[in-house]
Design brief:
Length: 235
């Protein structure tokens, strides 16, 4: 089973989001997941309730309830019957100063509410250029899973920061090498993310250790995203 996930980030108005969501293809064989902005997630979940498409949010806080203005929590997501949460996306790390420690707390809380979690990891360009990418990703993975003993609902997305939104995807062989490395630390599903499109999806999915794709820009284009869903059917 391949996992094809669309991360819509902070894009689309409600009507645009609905229009996109209802046009997404389903699969009997692979898992399709959409991460709309959280304010639209419940509506989209209801609209797609008869379709085999999972819905998630792009972030949760590590506390359950209380005076945390602007945040949403794992029990809230669970109470909306949403399926997934992304944790530790590089944009959260960069713009919202999420540390490895915060990410670990968020994962623990989300898993304790039986949410499926996709942990995002990945090195920056300067870290890769200075050949620290394995070390950085290992630190991110190990600190994120510290103190967790049940990994049933956890997946990882390897998203090199230099490949996100840049149009420059990692070479499939390089991504494969990192996925192999991650799976030797902990053997979970590992998705690749970073400038995936309908033209490079096949070569990425062909790699032995690439179990799926986490897609930003191309998930906002229905033709492109549906094409990638079709491509994944070939595996
Ligand atoms: P991108 O984003 O496909 O636009 O590079 C991927 C992501 O950030 O998950």
């Amino acid at each position: 089973m391949k996992v094809i996930a669309g991360n819509w980030k902070m894009n689309l108005t409600l009507n645009e989001a609905i229009d996109l969501a209802i046009s997404i293809k389903t699969s009997n064989k692979n898992e399709i997941i959409l991460f709309p902005p959280s304010i639209y997630a419940l509506k989209i979940k209801e609209l797609l309730k008869d379709k085999n498409i999972k819905i998630g949010v792009q972030n949760v806080f590590y506390e359950e309830f209380g005076a945390f203005t602007g945040e949403i929590s794992a029990p809230m997501v669970k109470s909306c019957n949403l399926d997934y949460v992304l944790i530790g996306h590089s944009e959260r790390r960069k713009f919202f100063y999420e540390t490895d420690e915060v990410i670990n707390k968020k994962i623990k809380k989300a898993l304790s509410f039986n949410l499926n979690v996709i942990l995002c990891v990945g090195e920056t360009l300067s870290e890769r250029e200075s050949k620290k990418h394995f070390e950085v990703v290992k630190r991110q993975v190990l600190s994120a899973i510290e103190g967790i003993d049940n990994f049933k609902n956890l997946k990882i997305a390897y998203e090199p920061v230099w490949a996100i939104g840049t149009g420059v995807n990692a070479k499939p062989e390089d991504a494969n090498e990192m996925h192999h490395f991650i799976k030797e630390i902990i053997n979970l599903y590992v998705l690749y993310g970073g400038s995936v499109n309908e033209n490079n999806a096949y070569s990425l999915l062909s790699q032995h250790y690439i179990d799926g794709l986490l897609i930003g820009n191309s998930s906002l284009k229905k033709e492109a995203f549906n094409k990638i869903i079709d491509i994944a059917e070939l595996f």
